[in-house]
């Protein structure tokens, strides 16, 4: 079963709620997979910070985003994490151009093993959804993006899930944002992504107004959206909750703390020292690599590592 098909089955199950930690590279994906999450999310903001060291201002190219998604999706498909791939939902920004480019993006993400992607209605020079000063394209341009994505999916015979995201609440109003998501659903989008909702009462109204379309919650702590726990999001009626900053925020605080210690004291903390090379490689699947060598008759790891 493909990751996309598996995700579709999850979305169709009325009892399923997907809590997806944001990951930004292979190591953060390995950590999330080792904890046992059923679905992961590749964050655009985290990818931009990690890959090019810049703010999420639309600077990552389609090739860079697709390559990062392919790396993570490949790890999600490793047998050590289950008999079928763990679905990966990936940020695809605006699709990186007009309908032709959107179609290419969908086909390449599908070929890379991505289970779902989200396409938004911002202009090409986009920015993080929780920053001010955003601009969105006309509604028909956005719907054309979704239609191009759906057509591309059909062309390659993929089950990849298309998630329609709108930022129109900040640029227009609630009614326009809902209208855009409804038209996206009519064009073939599978899931609605209402970015930047501002209250829990509004969240409940979104679920009601878009029913029966599944709705995704983007839980960016300290952003425009109030804080939801997974249990609260499920109770309101969301089908998916992505938490984009969970790995990169924890990593940033831990790294700075260790680097400041090293700078001031010239040594690492006892906790940091406890991660041995073998421990690091264990997280990264060295046992599976050693088994591949053994089954082939190799002796590269006969004495261990």
Automatic annotation (TrEMBL):
SUPFAM superfamilies xrefs: Phosphoenolpyruvate/pyruvate domain
Gene3D superfamilies linked to this entry: Phosphoenolpyruvate-binding domains (3.20.20.60)
Alphabetical list of Pfam families matching this protein: PEP_mutase
Catalytic activity from the UniProt record: (2S,3R)-3-hydroxybutane-1,2,3-tricarboxylate = pyruvate + succinate
Superkingdom classification of source: Eukaryota
InterPro entries found in the cross-reference section: ICL/PEPM, Isocitrate_lyase_ph_CS, Pyrv/PenolPyrv_kinase-like_dom, Pyrv_kinase-like_dom_sf
Similarity field: Belongs to the isocitrate lyase/PEP mutase superfamily.
Protein name: Carboxyphosphonoenolpyruvate phosphonomutase
Any one GO molecular-function label of the UniProt entry: methylisocitrate lyase activity
PROSITE patterns in the cross-refs: ISOCITRATE_LYASE
PANTHER family reported in the protein's UniProt record: PHOSPHOENOLPYRUVATE CARBOXYLASE (PTHR42905), PHOSPHOENOLPYRUVATE CARBOXYLASE FAMILY PROTEIN (PTHR42905:SF2)
């Amino acid at each position: 079963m493909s990751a996309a098909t598996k995700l579709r089955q999850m979305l169709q199950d009325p009892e399923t709620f997907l809590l997806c930690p944001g990951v930004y590279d292979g190591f953060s994906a390995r950590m999330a997979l080792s904890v046992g999450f059923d679905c992961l999310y590749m964050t655009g903001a985290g990818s931009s910070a990690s890959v090019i060291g810049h703010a999420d201002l639309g600077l990552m190219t389609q090739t860079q985003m697709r390559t990062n998604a392919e790396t993570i999706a490949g790890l999600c498909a490793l047998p050590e994490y289950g008999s079928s791939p763990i679905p990966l939902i990936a940020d695809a920004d605006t699709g990186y151009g007009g309908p032709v480019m959107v179609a290419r993006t969908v086909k390449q993400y599908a070929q890379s093993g991505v289970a779902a992607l989200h396409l938004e209605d911002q202009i090409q020079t986009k920015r993080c959804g929780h920053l001010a000063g955003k601009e969105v394209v006309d509604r028909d341009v956005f719907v054309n993006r979704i239609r191009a994505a759906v057509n591309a999916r059909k062309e390659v015979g993929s089950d990849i899930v298309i998630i329609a995201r709108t930022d129109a609440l900040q640029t227009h109003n609630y009614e326009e944002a809902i209208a855009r998501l409804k038209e996206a659903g009519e064009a073939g989008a599978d899931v609605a992504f209402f970015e930047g909702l501002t209250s829990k009462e509004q969240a409940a109204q979104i679920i009601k107004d878009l029913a029966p379309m599944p709705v995704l919650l983007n839980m960016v702590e300290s952003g425009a959206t109030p804080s939801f726990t997974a249990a609260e999001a499920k109770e309101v009626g969301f089908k998916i909750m992505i938490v984009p900053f969970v790995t990169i925020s924890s990593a940033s605080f831990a790294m700075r703390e260790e680097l400041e210690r090293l700078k001031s004291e010239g040594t690492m903390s006892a906790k940091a020292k406890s991660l041995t090379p073998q421990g690091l490689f264990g997280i990264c699947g060295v046992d599976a690599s050693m088994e591949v060598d053994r089954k082939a008759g190799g002796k590269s790891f006969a004495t261990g590592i």
